[in-house]
Amino acid sequence: MKTAVVVLNWNTKDYLRRFLPGLLHSCIAAGAELVVADSGSDDGSREVLAQEFPEVHTVLLDRNYGFTGGYNRAFEALDGLGYDYYVLINSDIEVEDGWLEPLLDWMESHPECGICGPKLHGLLRQDGLLIRSSRFEYAGAGGGLIDRFGFPYCRGRIWKKVEQDHGQYDQDPPEVFWVTGACLVIRASLWKSLGGLDDRFFAHMEEIDLCWRAQLAGWKVNVVPKSVVWHLGGGTLPPTSPLKLKLNFRNNLLALEKNLPGTYITQGLSPERAERKAARFLCVRVILDYCARIAYFCIGKPGLARAVRDAHREWNALRKQAPPRQAPLPGAKVEGLTGIFILLK
């Protein structure tokens, strides 16, 4: 089980100092290799990596390509090195020894599972300290589902309220619709066959699209409750950010338009009927989004209303592009002797 655990970093040097030592120790204990892909940081992250973590493999990107473009380029750089599993993990995740082994063991013993993830608990700021919470965390909680209108949600979270984790989702590792990109494991062969993440998404909901495509390809997605990690969250975009709202609305529509026809075909519809049904579904969603925009105006949040408007404008522009099959990305140049120092353009 050759495993690459990849952190995508962009201007979060303090997170690297805080969370990387524990992550590195846990990777060594699990026999995995830790890689940090830096997205053109200018906050001193690269100096921190070189000076304080010389044993960590590093992929250096020339600029910020977002979550999707960054990971696509990072794994392109690692292609051909014989990895069986890729692990995506945020720079603001805290782990303890033993978090990775249950995930890898599950993948090894369940060949039908293509993607799995841990339970996500919150990491709270209190009096200048970071406190591990026993409550689920907003981004992934106990695994994700999707409702009849195409809106994603999590087990263990209702709107912004999260549940206390008292084992209510610890039955046999359940099959879910998606697991959070804050921390997930995917078979390297599946990543390649799916073409990685959809670059059009840039950030947010790209993992839902990835999990959806994996299931349409015949794979299962599971949460493994024996594995728990703690997520600080909001490190790049705060929850109230109009940009974050725009990306969520836009990318939700992209994922629905891409994957609904194939889903309806698996339910027995002909391709023509599946396309028509998907188009009707999207019409309903556009109306619901318009209602949300009006609601934001009514409660005095015009910035969020404009974010919904911009999301639809960008969706209409992006949907004209064929969903990328992730053509091979530019090559890599090895620059260092300690670790994998690679510059991608």
Explain this structure.
It is a single chain. The chain has 345 residues and is α/β, with parallel strands linked by helices. It has 2 domains: 3-237 and 326-344, Spore Coat Polysaccharide Biosynthesis Protein SpsA, Chain A (Alpha-Beta Complex); 242-318. 39% of the residues lie in helices and 23% in strands. It is built from 9 helices and 15 strands. Residues 326-345 have low confidence and may be disordered.
In short:
The chain is built from nine helices and 15 strands. It is α/β, with parallel strands linked by helices and about 350 residues long.
Largest sheet: 11 strands, mixed
Number of domains: 2
End-to-end CA span: 30 Å
Low-confidence stretches: 326-345
Mean pLDDT: 91
Class computed from helices, strands and strand pairing: alpha/beta
| Number of strand segments | 15
> From N to C, what is the helix and strand string?
EHEHEHEEHEEEEEEEHHEHHHEE
* CATH fold description of the largest domain: Spore Coat Polysaccharide Biosynthesis Protein SpsA, Chain A
Provide the helix percentage: 25-40%
Judging from the principal axes of the Cα atoms, what is the shape? globular
Number of helices: 9
- CATH architectural designation of the largest domain: Alpha-Beta Complex
Radius of gyration: 20 Å
CATH class of the largest domain: Alpha Beta
Beta-strand percentage range: 15-25%
SSE blueprint:
Blueprint: E1 3-9, H1 13-30, E2 33-39, H2 45-52, E3 57-61, H3 66-78, E4 85-89, E5 93-94, H4 101-109, E6 113-126, E7 129-136, E8 144-146, E9 152-154, E10 157-158, E11 161-162, E12 183-187, H5 188-194, H6 206-216, E13 220-231, H7 242-266, H8 271-298, H9 302-318, E14 333-334, E15 342-344
Parallel strand pairs: 1-2, 1-4, 2-3, 3-15, 6-13
Antiparallel strand pairs: 4-12, 5-13, 6-7, 6-12, 8-9, 10-11, 14-15
